[in-house]
Design goal:
Elements: H1 21-28, E1 32-36, E2 39-42, H2 44-63, E3 67-68, E4 74-76, H3 77-82, H4 85-89, E5 94-97, E6 103-106, H5 111-121, E7 130-139, E8 154-164, H6 167-187, E9 193-196, E10 206-213, E11 219-224, E12 230-232, E13 238-239, E14 253-256, H7 263-270, E15 278-285, E16 289-296, H8 303-310, E17 315-317, H9 320-327, E18 343-347, E19 356-362, E20 365-370, E21 380-382, E22 392-393, E23 400-415, H10 417-421, E24 425-427, E25 433-435, E26 437-444, H11 445-455, E27 457-458, E28 461-462, E29 473-477, H12 483-498, E30 503-506, H13 512-522, E31 526-530, H14 532-535, E32 539-544, E33 550-554, H15 558-567
Parallel strand pairs: 3-7, 16-18, 18-21, 29-30, 29-31
Antiparallel strand pairs: 1-2, 4-6, 5-6, 7-8, 8-26, 9-10, 10-23, 11-12, 11-23, 13-22, 14-20, 15-16, 15-17, 19-20, 23-26, 24-25, 27-28, 31-32, 32-33
Helix pairs in contact: 1-11, 2-6, 2-11
The structure holds one RNA strand of 77 nucleotides.
Length: about 575
RNA sequence: CGGGGCGUAGCGAAGUUUGGUAUCGCGCACGGUUCGGGACCGUGAGGUCGUAGGUUCAAAUCCUACCGCCCCGACCA
């Protein structure tokens, strides 16, 4: 395609709104344009990349035996109420009423719709197993769209759903998708980590996330460089130290802290390091029993770990009233010291230090010189917090690193989370009705595009892998008004097109520098440069964008060479 | 929702403190000279200065409200 035919509005300067590299480059090279916060248009080049990503996804999904369909984005709110996710979606849901008063949700995901469909058609064991997928726009009113197309309110997702007769079938389907995802991301030129994850709002027990390491990710990986273990920070465990520190001889002192409730308030106001503070968080276990969870001021309680340690069925943060009842003080001044009829759980790190500052269980007061064991007893100690950089690897005991990463894919073994709510059953060979077992599998197409840019760029622009590049080759003339140059380039262009090569032909009458810079920015993997200087010698220059290395070949061999390069 | 920053031509900015003809660079159009890594000269087009109200002889500038955008944080006491 000729440059003048399509729309490639490259910019000389990077719009100041862009911070992430992918955001900057995609704007500068004319791939995307923002319409409003978190809402983007994909210009011709951007659209071509999206299509290439989708093509690869389709190929791998199809060859894994999944079948494509298309579900509606416009979904009656009613089906969301049936699965109980209407409320769980909360503010993220974009919903409205039509003229007759029916409420609709712009689909943020499609479990409800597909499950309804499965209920209608997958009623016999012969219909199972089945994996259906679609590539569709999802709508989520994100609180804060971020980093260009990494987090947007409207995005394209490939979502697949498997339906099986039993758990064993689900495991097979899950493995199948898991491998397909590995192939897809590898073909897309991404290096990635697969980590076990917390299924969260989606439900189910087993889930894995496909993570791409990037400065602009919103998630964290706990990485051990020694034993190479990688886990999601959300669920990473740590090895606990066996040491303990004896208490100090200083006695507890109560001091005034008017209106200073948070760790940040206390630490800045009194110049005390957060690690010398102790946070006491009150939870209610099984809706009845109060629990005080204590961690260092610079740590965060991990509700899941706490729940596991307690063996609690249900655990949630206490509300203001409950806190007041348990501690005798308003929110912000809790301490384990003097608490009665409350189970106290401490994080093991509290045993490694002495002399903490805690609340005083009185309004506007805290206490210092608090020592574990001396001033209060606890029922259990253990790992009840999120890991931090420098914590010890649960597997080998060496130090963990925290690395930011973005989630590009997520697979879940949902089980009967949805089929139960929507009563999706099949008849087995004995005629008995059984719930269909589901899995679901998502890939963020736009985010994958951003991830590829994040991993393939340099100071001049993008370096697309051949598989996803908007064009495989960019042909450009050094001086387009020179007849010989133009004629040679025109001929080459026809040859490349005839050979089925996706070629962008920069036929603009721009100066060489402009064209070279735009070519590097746009990032086609190979550049074919036609210039008078080489032409008189009967040769043409081919440049590899990724390495910036050039080779010179006779005109007649250009096509063959390009084909060879594309094959490799 | 809280904190911070910002809104002036397609892009990047100055001007706002101290009210007085809307300015500069890039890009765009036309003419010319150039032509292998973002050329140069000349001419020109392009603006509700985010929106609405107020103060004033006079508002991009001062006041009030609202809208939008970016970054950080968000039931952790």
């Amino acid at each position: 395609m000729r440059w003048g035919t399509i729309l490639i509005p490259t910019l000389r300067e990077i719009p100041k709104e862009a911070e992430a590299k992918s955001h900057q480059l995609l704007l500068k090279a004319g791939y995307i344009r923002k319409l409003s916060s978190g809402v983007y248009s994909y210009l011709p080049l951007g659209f071509r990349v999206l299509q290439n990503i989708c093509r690869i996804i389709r190929e791998e999904m199809n060859s894994a035996g999944a079948v494509e369909l298309l579900l509606p984005a416009l979904q009656p709110a009613e089906i969301w109420k049936q699965t109980g996710r209407y409320d769980a979606l909360g503010e993220d849901k974009i919903s409205f009423k039509n003229r007759t008063g029916t409420e609709y949700v712009l689909g943020p995901t499609h479990e409800e719709v597909i499950t309804e469909l499965a209920g209608a058609y997958l009623q016999t064991q012969h219909a199972l197993p089945k994996t259906l997928y679609q590539i569709q726009t999802k709508f989520r009113d994100e609180l804060r769209p971020r980093f260009g197309i990494i987090r947007t309110k409207e995005f394209i997702m490939k979502d697949a759903y498997s339906f099986d007769a039993d758990e064993e079938g689900l495991k097979k389907s899950y493995q199948n998708m898991y491998h397909a995802y590995q192939k897809i991301l590898t073909r897309l030129g991404l290096s990635f980590d697969i980590v076990t994850a917390d299924p969260g709002i989606m439900g189910g027990k087993v889930s894995h996330e496909f993570m791409v390491r990037s400065e602009y990710g919103e998630d964290h990986l706990a990485v051990c460089e020694t034993c190479k273990m990688v886990t999601s920070r959300d669920i990473a465990a740590r090895k606990l130290s066996k040491q303990t520190t004896p208490p100090t001889s200083s006695k507890i002192e109560i001091f005034d802290t008017p209106n200073l409730k948070t760790i940040h308030d206390i630490s800045t106001h009194f110049h005390i390091a957060p690690r010398k503070l102790m946070k006491t968080i009150i939870y209610m276990m099984n809706d009845r029993d109060p629990v005080a969870a204590c961690v260092r001021g610079d740590h965060e309680v991990h509700e899941g770990k706490l729940r596991n340690l307690l063996g609690a069925k249900q655990l949630c943060l206490a509300n203001a009233k409950e806190i007041e009842k348990v501690t005798g003080a308003p929110l912000g001044f809790a301490s384990p010291v003097g608490l009665r009829d409350v189970k106290i759980i401490i994080d093991a790190d509290l045993l490694l230090d002495q002399d903490f500052v805690t609340g005083a269980n009185q309004k506007d007061k805290h206490m210092k010189h608090v020592n574990v064991g001396r001033d209060f007893n606890y029922s259990q100690s253990g790992d009840i917090r999120f890991v931090q950089e420098g914590d010890l690897c649960a597997q080998c005991g060496n130090k963990l690193l925290l690395i930011t990463a973005m989630e590009v894919g997520h697979v879940f073994q949902l089980g009967t989370r949805y089929t139960e709510c929507l009563n999706v059953k099949y008849k087995d060979s004995s005629g008995a009705e059984k719930l269909v077992i589901m899995g679901c599998y998502g890939l963020g197409v736009n985010r994958i595009m951003a991830a590829i840019v994040e991993q393939h760029n340099d100071s001049k622009g993008m370096k697309w892998p051949v598989a996803v590049a908007p064009f495989q080759v960019e042909l450009l003339t050094v001086n387009h008004s020179h007849d010989g140059t133009r004629e040679a380039a025109d001929q080459l262009y026809s040859k490349l097109i005839e050979a089925g090569i996706d070629c962008l032909y920069d036929d603009r009458e721009e100066r060489a520098g402009v064209k070279f810079n735009d070519a590097d920015l746009v990032g086609a993997p190979f550049h074919v440069v036609v210039g008078e200087r080489n032409l008189v010698k009967g040769v043409i220059e081919i440049k590899k964008r990724a390495s910036q290395e050039s080779l010179v070949v006779p005109i007649s061999e250009v096509l063959g060479k390009v084909q060879e390069l594309l094959r490799d």
